[in-house]
Amino acid sequence: MDLQGRAAFVTGGSGDLGAAICERLARAGCDVAVGYVGNKDGAEKVAGLVRGLGRKTTMVQVDQADAAACEPAVNAAASGLGRLDILVNNAGWNIGIPFPELDKLTVDVWDRLQHTNLRGPFFLAKAAAPHMLKQGAGRIVNIASIAGHRPVGSSIGYATSKAALVHLTRCLAVAMAPAITVNCVSPGLIEGTRMAQRIPPAVAEGVRKSVVLGRGADVKDIAAQVETFCRADSVTGQVLVVDGGLVFH
Prior knowledge:
Layout: E1 7-10, H1 16-27, E2 31-36, H2 40-52, E3 57-61, H3 70-81, E4 86-89, H4 107-135, E5 138-143, H5 156-176, E6 180-187, H6 194-197, H7 201-210, H8 219-231, E7 239-242
Parallel strand pairs: 1-2, 1-4, 2-3, 4-5, 5-6, 6-7
Helix pairs in contact: 1-2, 1-8, 3-4, 4-5
């Protein structure tokens, strides 16, 4: 798909990875709706960057843990940009709870993880599909995690939510074919981001020691893969891990 003049909605666009994805898509020729929850200053900064690249932009506040907020957010993005061709489900939530500390994984924490990281992306994708079908094609890219492939990460609740997001990607690829492709990027530890800072230090250090490149994932590499999935016409239901080279998956 030629990205020039396309419109993309990037959830969590005010964060470190989200900002990199917004910039990458804007440089590729996309207008970008910057999604955010509470970091309005960050969203404004990213929107300004997109605008500075000569692309149209709008900001959309949405807490995707609230299922009822998903469709209005997608509609706002499409209205603000005049169309919608791409959805990047980048927003997520995590909390550092070591796996053995099961008592700390309360119902409220579990539900917030599942609602934000799994249910939200589903309802956003569902709401985006009609807008994409109006254009005859669409692209959805989910951002999962290496924790969705291995029993690692900030908590059991986070890992299982991302594992489910990986499989949701494959299921939606079937459901939305042939007009809309659905793919997924699974980053490993992304150094220097707020999300990474919530991972227990011992877990983060263990990841650093286990990757063959000796360093974690880079936001620019992840953003580049998002662009690649958006451009591809014959790739769907695929998951690419960007983690610095963990030996076993």
